Amino acid sequence: MQIARTYTGTPYRSGGNDKDGIDCSGLICQVYSEMGVKVPRISWQQSEFGQEVGSVAEIKPGDWLFFVPEAGKEGYVSHAGIVTDVRGRDEIIFIHASTSRGVREDNLFSTYFKGRFVKAMRPF
């Protein structure tokens, strides 16, 4: 969480993976790279890495969250983030690289994200 939060405010850049600009999967990749751990770079590959978390109630800090582009639709994974805090049944905070606001933390249960959420993975 500490490493991920050092990227807070970093602007979004598609394909980016440093503090000059970063995308969502690049954020995950860079955080783990700084810990000396190699993980996949692309969000759909990350969504297959590790063990799937059985239910939302089992999500823990450090888990990865994955989203599709349109609420309520099936489709390809297009967005990812790292859980930073679980504050309750309806407040799971995750850090991600927002296309409009850069790296920031949001609640999984916000109107925007809850309908797009498809799964959580526990990478390790």
From TrEMBL:
Coiled coil: none annotated. Keywords: Hydrolase, Protease, Signal, Thiol protease. Gene3D superfamilies: endopeptidase domain like (from Nostoc punctiforme). The keyword Protease applies. InterPro entries: Murein_DD/LD_carboxypeptidase (IPR052062), NLP_P60_dom (IPR000064), Papain-like_cys_pep_sf (IPR038765). Residues 1-124 form the NlpC/P60 domain. Belongs to the peptidase C40 family. This is NlpC/P60 domain-containing protein. The lineage of its organism: Bacteria, Pseudomonadati, Bacteroidota, Cytophagia, Cytophagales.
